[in-house]
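It would be a great kindness if you could assist me with a short task in structural biology. A protein sequence and the structure tokens that stand for its backbone fold form the material at issue. I should value your view on which stretches of the chain appear to form regular backbone elements. The record follows directly beneath this note.
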Amino acid sequence: DFCLSRGLGDVYKRQHVYLSGADPDLSIGNFIADQVKGKSYATYPYAIQRGILLHRKIDDFTDRHPLFKKNVRLLFPTFRHYSRVIVDMFFDHFLATQWGEYHHQPLEQFISDFYDLIDQYPGTLPHKINNMIPFLIDQNWFMDYSTVEGLEKILNQMSRRTQYPVERDRAVIDLKANYNDIKDDFNVFFESLEKHVAEAVLK
């Protein structure tokens, strides 16, 4: 099933976990949100509901942001409706490559701590995510975004999980050809996203 979430990449998108801050329930809610449909979020404890709703606000803000939309348009002629997923992945790549500018913990430790956190919520995770967790941890998918080679690996997984013939090599070529421009767009976008999330959490 390709759509474990908004896209294969979104299942383990580091941006959502990072934007949850140090709140474990918020992190878990944010992590599972794409598998929690409609009003079913109300069946979860309130603290996790907040994470689910925060995830939805992040996605809505992202989809509306002009720099995100600009990069979707860049990829759309080749990737069509998968362009949003791939831009998500590109942006998460730039969060990983600049991690030290955003977080005091080394990336490897942050990821390890999150894997430990997941283990504390065995009865909370939706079925599909529970099934995916062993692969997430064993293959350390959260780290894959840190390199272009890792992105190519994930794109290869996408091509096996969808009937759409994803030209994964072309996606990597597009990233390399526009690397600095996409990085600059991400930095401006993410600064505005952090401010938006800070306001959303306070509400």
About this structure: The two ends are 35 Å apart (CA to CA). Residues 1-12 have pLDDT under 50 and may be disordered. The chain is about 70% helix and 0% strand.
